[in-house]
Amino acid sequence: MYKLLLCVRYLRTKYIALACIISVMLGVATMIVVNSVMAGFTTEMRDRLHNFIADIVIESRSMSGVENARAQMEIVEGAAGQYIAAMTPTIEIPGMISFRDPYTGESYTSAVQIQGIDPEGKSSVGPLRDYLDSFNPVIEDGVVIRKALRSRETPVTWELTPEAAEYRKAVLEQRSLYLPEEPSVDEMVPAAADATNETAAPEFDSESAANETPAAEDAVIKDGIIQDSFLNELPEPPIESTVRTDPFPARIFLGEGLVSFQAKNPETGNLAKVMMVTPGDDVIVSTVTAGRPPEPVRINATVVDSFRSGMNEYDTSIVLMNINELQKSRGMHLDNSITSIHIKLKDYADAPKVIAALERAFPPGQVSIKTWEEKQGLLLSAVEVETAILNVLLFLIITVAGFGILAIFYMIVVEKTRDIGILKSLGASSNGVMSIFLSYGLGLGIVGSLAGVAIGLLFVRYINQIEDGLSWITGRKVFDEKIYYFFEIPTSVSPMMVIAVAFGAISIAVLASILPARRAARLHPVRALRFE
Amino acid sequence: MAETLKMNRPLISAEAITKSYFRGEHKVPVLQGAGLTAHRGEFISVIGQSGSGKSTLLHVMGLLDSPDVGEVILDGNRIDNLNQAARDQLRNHVFGFIFQFYHLLPELSLLENVMTPLMIRHSILGYWRHRKEIREAAMSMIQQVGLEHRIKHRPSELSGGEMQRGAIARALVGRPEILLADEPTGNLDSSTGGGIMDLLKSLNENQQLTIVMVTHDESIAAQAHRTVRLAQGRIQTVGREDAA
Ligand SMILES: Nc1ncnc2c1ncn2[C@@H]1O[C@H](COP(=O)(O)OP(=O)(O)OP(=O)(O)O)[C@@H](O)[C@H]1O
Ligand SMILES: [Mg+2]
Predict the structure, then answer these.
(1) From B114, which residue of chain A is nearest by alpha-carbon distance?
(2) In this predicted complex, what is the ipTM?
(3) How many domains does chain B have?
(4) What CATH number should be reported for the domain holding residue B85?
């Protein structure tokens, strides 16, 4: 009993114990916060990696693909139909897109991954709708600056939004004014900038108004809006609808990163996204035909939408195109060839079964069948290794706290030497004395861990508010959503992790108290009593 | 009284105790065949120069230390060679210690200090079952030493005399048979020390408590039934056999 009493008294009266508690607490809190944020990032990253790769992907080994999409899908259906929620045929082929920057007139060409898709099929195997610009509002600093252009309930199609169609019409009509010469887009820019002082995007308003210079750089910022408003202000177009404004049959969704860049607003210093291609514009997509040898093809395509999946790798390389047009251009339409089938499972846990069944169903060597995790294996395992290393490092921090406890406990034992002698003279056993200090370590570990868990969980809970506060104090964004693509810091708290961390910290506290406790137990009573 | 005492079997005796310390390579003999016997109800004082080994003898008798040579016999049984657990038990049940510097535990209140030996005696469960009796025993002991108005105080809030009374209460709360006192008045002024001596004498008389008290104050020593002198590692002089 005296053990408990003394242990509690020592906890309450030895302020040095507070140092131990704080170090345990900080260690535990840090581990919980870092683990939660890492887990949040990992989950988010896995989601994003998963965006453009369905649960299971069957790929043909040749770029020319395999014939008869319908027959292939029937094979899949027959082999594992009961596990499959949705599937969609796809053509995946490397290629390039070229477009003209409307302001500088320069041509840009980027290497891309072209995916021929059926938009409804694609959105049935992945969250396509969530990433298409027109289905989502534009939010900046928590304020909606543009509502979603399409309702989430409408199907994903290759139709231009009315806004994009209008824009397209206006641009083409405008361009036709300059015919027969090649319409040069940069000639339009200064005029546009002058004409749009009041209607340009709000953050640039004052700047273009104040600046007399026919600043091409000013206008570089917001092309879509500037051109729109410029045209709104024009009198009736002189030539009434003689220009062909229908979009090309080939339509594409573009990765946002392919056609945008971040530019600094010279006045506010804020980064803003500048789109060089807007829905309604035309671009040239080049790839190769499916024949042997492959011949280059150029496809004129109209941009219908841009997407932002949050995965930079995808957003700067993927171009989604209507599968029929891609088949036609590549000469695959006659036998309805495709290169891959994306499959969404009802339950991802069935993946191994499904893969085994599909492998039996397809002729060996013709296709490769992988889960999305296998396709992204390297990246995922890199993240896992990273988390593991981070945990080892953080655990070292708690171990350091453990050595602190060891030192402080030694100090307390030395300080309490005489009391230990007294307890022994009163008949306390060595084990009894030892258990005072062991339970002291345990108590300290428990208190520190509980406090650490509480602080860690609170921190995680309010991490975004804390981030806001820090940004406000330091005057710069700590966690810039433009860099990280996250509007909020993602977190994910796993109860198992919290328990493991708390338990680990308590064990370390107890382990660290073993040595001092043994020393206390072994003290010779007389020597302890004589201790000054 | 002396007659009856002699009739009694000795309660505790230290026989031919030899004890040396090593200071580096140097062997420093402290006790060289010291022997001391106390009968039940006897009050013995041990005097001697500083460093003569008085405390060492007391520690050996109270099982805080073991002799190099010699035996400690309690009620006819040798106790110095018992195992650790049995020695702990005896310290808790048979011996009570008081020290020059009181040695109360600073984190505990006076009441808790006095309860400590009984808390050590019982497991947590046993303590819980007997908590009332334990508290009452401690309270009555505190009343005997006249400190009932101080039970909530920490040792640091008590005077030297009060602390020594508290220490006596603690030593006696477990109803020991032998009280081993190491210079109980050494740190107190003479009137306070006199009060402590009166307390010890009354405990000895009323409860037949056996007391072995170390001191180097002749006048304090004279209040015991019998005074022995420790010199050159041996008990040399046997003083008067009767209390003043
Ligand atoms: N652990 C030890 N190591 C070495 N020498 C020791 C040790 N403990 C005690 N001594 C020595 O033993 C001798 C006897 O010590 P002890 O404390 O028994 O004397 P004492 O008679 O009680 O003296 P005092 O009246 O000053 O209390 C002293 O010379 C002391 O220095
Ligand atoms: Mg001494």
Answers:
(1) A426
(2) 0.89
(3) 2
(4) 3.40.50.300
